[in-house]
Amino acid sequence: MTEPDHQKTVIREAAADVDDEIVIALIMEYLQAAIRRVAEDLPGSGMLDGLVSSTDEKKIRKGLKGFRRPHGRILLVEQGGNPVGIGALRTIGRDVGEIKRLYLRPGARRQGLGRAVGKRLLEEAQSMGLCTVRLDTFRGFDEARELVGSGGFRERGPYEGTEIPEDLWEHWTFYERELPSHRGTP
Fold first, then answer.
1. Is residue 98, in this structure, part of any structural domain at all?
2. Which of 34, 43, 114, 159 has its CA 20 to 30 A from that of 9?
3. Where in this chain does the record put each N-acetyltransferase domain (predicted)?
């Protein structure tokens, strides 16, 4: 039995310019939710100043270029034609990519969509010829850390190219996963 159209889920690459407004809106939702969570877990820590500045719409818009082809990908998740999530990949070094902004609206969670977006981002990384994918998450995001661990990533220290300021590293966990090579080398 097929799902009714109003329930159909699609994960697709966001089209530059055409999808920019919804991409920016989802990134801002993600960042605002992250800031709220950090504030709950670390009240009065002073670490919110740098995070709040990351919600500047102009900075987000300018930053989209780093996630576009040929150096990255932005994926949109839609259910019944409505945007419900996002995931992004960017190149941060020779043969190294970074997954960022994996976010699902609350009504789209617990359906396996985070895992599906993560898998698709890894496939995109492989198609770009990347050998390693890295990511980070706030230590208080237990659900995200569980998803990352089940996706074959291993913990590592902070890495070159991370956007997380050094004074926040103690509150973040950094991960890495090697990808199978398509270059014919063992």
1. yes
2. 34
3. 33-175
Give the burial class of 77: count Cβ atoms within 10 A of its Cβ; 0-12 exposed, 13-18 middle, 19 or more buried.
Answer: buried
Domain that holds residue 150: 5-178
Structural domains of the chain, count: 1
Domain of 121: which CATH number? Answer: 3.40.630.30
Lookup: tokens for 131: 């050998």
Count other Cβ atoms within 10 Å, centred on residue 14: 22
Q: Tell whether the model's pLDDT for residue 41 goes beyond 70.
A: yes
Percent of the chain with pLDDT over 90: 64
Give domain status of residue 128, yes or no.
yes
Q: Closest Cα to residue 127, out of 171, 83, 75?
A: 75
Global pTM value: 0.88
Place of tokens 């920016």: 24
Is 55 a domain residue? Answer: yes
Q: pLDDT band for position 64 (50/70/90)? A: very high
